[in-house]
Structures are given as C-alpha cells and as structure tokens.
Automatic annotation (TrEMBL), chain A:
It comes from Streptomyces amritsarensis. The keyword Membrane applies. The chain crosses the membrane at residues 71-92, 98-118, 130-149, 155-175. It comes from the Bacteria. The keyword Ribosomal protein does not apply. Keywords: Membrane, Transmembrane, Transmembrane helix. This is Integral membrane protein.
Automatic annotation (TrEMBL), chain B:
Pfam families: PadR. Gene3D superfamilies: Winged helix-like DNA-binding domain superfamily/Winged helix DNA-binding domain. It comes from Streptomyces amritsarensis. It comes from the Bacteria. This is PadR family transcriptional regulator.
Length: 185, 126
C-alpha cells in the first residue's frame, strides 16, 4: 500500500465512524508526517500502521472520540444526507407530498447500508467505485421489493419532513465549515 | 474449561509492553516535548519496539483526552510540514509519578520472585 492509499483508507474510515472534520484533518496531518519520516528513515508503511489499515484507523478513532459522540454525529450526518436525497424528488416533481413505495425504500436503505459497510471494510477504492458497488446491490434490491410488494405507497411523506431531517446535521455542517476555513486561513 | 496455551516470548513481551507503554511515553514526553515519530524512534532506541509505530497514536489520543498531555504544532527540526508535539500537563506529571512508583514496586516484587526461583533451582542465566 502506498502512503496515499493508507491516508485515503483512514480518511474514509474516520468519516464513516463519525470523526469530526477538524479532528480528522489533524489525524491525517500527523499520520502523513509520520509516514514521510518513516519512509525517509527506511521504514515501510506496514511498520507504521501494522498489518491492517482498518484496524489501525478504527483503534485511533475509538481512542480519539468517545462512541456516543461519534454515533450522534454519524446519525445526524446520515439524516442530513437522507434529507438532501428526499428533498430532490419534491423539487423535480414540484409537489408537496411524496409517495414512498417498497421499491424506493429498499433501494435507498440498501444503498446507504452497502455504502457505509463497504467504506468501513474497504475504504480505499474511491467514491465512484464505492457507489458503483452500492448501486449494484441496491438496484436489484429495489426491483425485487417492487416486484414482490407492488407499487402501492407504504406512506406519504409531507414536504416538511426532509427539512426536518436536515436540522440535526446543520450544527455539524456549520462546525465543519468553520474548521475548514480556520485551517485554510 | 479451556486452558490457554503458554505465551510465547513475543506475546509476553507485547503484553508487558502494553501494560507499561503509556508510562514510557509519558516519561519520554517529560524529558522534552516530542512528536509521534520521535516517540516511536526513542522507544525503539530504548529497546521497546511496539508491534507498529502507529500503535502509539491511539494511546496518545487517549492520554490527551484524559488531560495527561497536551499538544501544539511547531516546525520540525528536520524540515517539512509542522509536527504535532506533545507535552506533559500537571496531571500527566502526577500520573507519571504514581505510575513509576507502581512499576518499580511491581518490577521489584516480580524480580525477587523470579530471582529466588532461579537460585533455589540452581539455574543460572547467561
């Protein structure tokens, strides 16, 4: 594994484990400097991270931020993305109500689950490939659910629901934006 | 009931190091503020090489969260990007003092037992 691959794998792992942006930047800078120093001293990347980059990244994430804080952040950010995804059909169809069918529900649930699981397990294949893998699993799941359960809506979602989902993630989004500005200043 | 296999030399060494690595890091940081790579090098130079250099980072993060050490960024003497240096806090100093006393008492007791056993069985270490 190259240094860039190790850093990408760690970044992905930490993002999905609910590490905040400022902490992640700090950890990546520290790891990057250590990898460079180790390389200059004739040591390999494996000497630094051990045999498994995911185990290394997970151990550091657990030590850096307590689980309740990471779960809270990951949930809020997940809901934020769900809100963004849900808002799009309202805008495209210019409607105030959205029928959620079994097919749509299965598609998005499988897409989200596979994306998170894949990024946590692999975390080094890049966003596009990761989405391709998730789509490869979500499309059949959605079609299967539509075929077996029909097109009848499970429930109707009002327009106020997606903005409500965005709310818990907003403080985190603002904090990340501020941290990014501070680091570039 | 299952019986655990006896630890090999490497496993025992790893277990011993795990129990004392935080104190060694605190002690090295007490000497002067250091960054991660320097700590890994100092451990290796002292004959305590962890399984991987990076295994010190979770420990450093845990000690920083506990308020035993604090960190700051400063340029590296070797050049390149600024490094994250760790320094000891007052709480870290107190913890190191307690940890040192505990370790010396423990190592003394263990040493006495091991030495006494060696003498009574007539074994000689080379």
């Amino acid at each position: 594994m190259t240094n860039a691959q190790i850093l990408a794998a760690c970044r992905s792992n930490w993002e999905y484990r609910g590490i905040d942006d400022a902490s992640m930047r700090d950890m990546l800078d520290e790891l990057s400097a250590h990898l460079e120093d180790a390389e200059a001293a004739g040591r390999t990347a494996q000497d630094v991270i051990g045999g498994d980059v995911r185990t290394f990244a997970a151990a550091w994430a657990r030590a850096r931020t307590p689980l309740p804080r990471r779960v809270l952040r990951a949930t809020a950010v997940g809901l934020y993305y769900a809100g963004c995804v849900l808002l799009a059909p309202y805008l495209f169809r210019w409607t105030t109500q959205l029928d959620v069918t079994p097919g749509t529900m299965a598609f998005w649930l499988v897409l989200a689950t596979v994306t998170v699981a894949w990024e946590l397990r692999r975390g080094m294949i890049g966003l596009r490939r990761s989405w391709a893998v998730a789509l490869g699993a979500a499309l059949p799941a959605g079609l299967l659910a539509a075929w077996s359960a029909g097109d009848a809506p499970l429930f109707t979602l009002p327009l106020w629901a997606p903005p409500l989902l965005l709310l818990p993630g907003l403080p985190y989004a603002v904090a990340d934006l501020r941290a990014r500005r501070r680091s570039t200043a | 009931m299952t019986k655990e296999a006896p630890a090999t030399g490497d496993q025992r060494r790893t277990q011993l190091l795990r129990g004392v690595l935080d104190l060694c890091l605190l002690s090295l940081i007490e000497e002067r503020p250091r960054y991660g790579f320097e700590l890994a090098e100092a451990l290796a130079a002292g004959g305590l090489e962890p399984v991987s250099d990076g295994s010190i980072y979770p420990l450093l993060a845990r000690m920083e969260r506990a308020g035993l050490i604090s960190s700051y960024r400063a340029p590296s003497p070797t050049g390149g990007a600024p490094r994250k240096y760790y320094r000891l806090t007052d709480a870290g100093c107190a913890e190191l003092g307690r940890g040192r006393a505990d370790w010396l008492a423990f190592a003394g007791s263990a040493g006495r037992i091991l030495t006494a056993t060696t003498q009574s069985t007539g074994e000689h270490s080379t």
